[in-house]
Amino acid sequence: MSEFPGRASGLPSQAPSPVPDPPKRAPKQGTALRQRLAELRGPDVPAQPMDARALAALAANPGCRRRALLDGAGVDKASLAQSLGSPAPFGQSQFAFMRGNAFEAKVKADGGAELLRLAHGRIGGGPEPVPGKSSVPDLAAVGPEGRAARTSLALREATHTAGWTLLDHPMLALDVAGTPAFLEPDAVVVHPDGTWTVVEIKSFPMIDGSADAAKVGAAARQAAVYVLALEEVAARMDPAPRVRHHVLLVCPKDFSNLPTASAIDVRKQLSVTRRQLGRLTRIEDIAAALPEGTTFDVNRPAADLTAAVEAVPATYAPECLAACELAFHCRGRSREEGAVTALGRSVRGELGGLTTIGDILSAATGASGDPADPAVATLRRAAALRAEALSGAGAGSGAGALSEAGALSGVGGSGGSGGSLGSGGGDTAGGAPC
Q: What gap in Å lies between CA 426 and CA 413, rounded to an integer?
């Protein structure tokens, strides 16, 4: 039998059909997003890590696409604000930084014996730790991804040892709007019963068993981000260990340098953070809506940077002054536009569909607005009361002392006209929210 059946039967031989080139593989979505974010930062600009403090601030204002994109891309917002001409007085003094590091080193000395003693006394989770018998695994690895993987392995091993384990500065990964954020808590304690506890070490004092409420609240919101990331690590294990919703807050006792601790319940902060981070628009969607060639490279001219920043929608509120480096720039833009959000979220909620100072003044004077609208009715009543008070007092100086927008809205002073909010319009130049 012939080796070529077609030829043996007299059929004409056919030239082999050309082999098509293999299709080019499109880059993976994650790789394409990382490249896009690198382009937004600028060439050869290292990414700024997204820490828990930034995530807590982002969760407090999930509607701000500008902050979500800049944090996701790792843009240095402090340098960006400086280039825009609106620097923010953020940062920690060198003295406070050194004092905090010294206190943390004292707490973790001798294999974390004092820290584990505090964890046992305030939270429990097993027999009293014996000094020198606890484990402090080495978490060193190459890059944040390597450190996160090493942390996950150390947590898995420690959970099954039925002993006390201290993880010093572990690395946790948390997905935020489609991009990974690598977080580094001060410590994580694995108890003999297999449960995990986040440890926050702060340098502000705890006097007579209590500390400054605002600072404790900020620490709780920051710790809630760590708990959320730790729960994602636990969910990948079978069976999943329990992550405690009480974090250990360690502070100096009274006016000394001796450590003391308190168990802080962060269930409320955890629920809010989980819900708010889930509401964030995915970063790739925000980046896809930007004009071609947009970049936040701080080496570019201020006019180009301003156009790039303004291409991303922002949601300003006075609370941003204490949490975002771009807050002063956004506040200036909000004032120029006469936005009601500059007066605060509570005022914005009370005014309903009235979104600008011009709308408020027009509704109060009767030039526009539905009289059936409760906000419009309240504004007109406030305008009538103001006119009555001024006419009854007969003091022309009162009209200069009272700002028109603040008096009409009943929400506080506002200097200037034409929508300028002045120093009393819901926030202060010093950065404290109203």
A: 8
> How many CB atoms lie under 10 A from the CB of residue 18?
6
> Can you read off the two tokens belonging to residue 323?
């949490």
Q: How far is CA 377 from the centre of its chain?
A: 38
CB 414, CB 403: distance < 8 Å: yes
Residues 73 and 62: their CA atoms lie apart, in Å, by: 16
- The answer for residues whose C-beta is within 8 angstroms of residue 330's C-beta and 6 or more apart is 66, 314, 316, 320, 324
- Cross-strand partners of 174: 181
CA 326 to chain centre: 13
Kindly report the pTM of this predicted structure: 0.71
Task: Collect all residues with Cβ–Cβ distance below 8 Å to 377 and sequence separation of at least 6.
Answer: 371
Q: Report the SS3 class of residue 298.
A: coil
What are the tens digits of pLDDT across the range 340-388?
888 877 777 778 778 888 888 888 888 888 888 888 888 888 888 988 8
The pLDDT tens digits of the residues spanning 306-346 come to 999 999 999 888 888 888 899 999 999 988 888 888 887 77
* C-alpha torsion 346→351→352→358, nearest 10: -130
121 in Cβ contact with 199 (< 8 Å): no
Burial class (CB in 10 A: 0-12, 13-18, 19+), 250: buried
- CB 316 within 8 Å of CB 334: yes
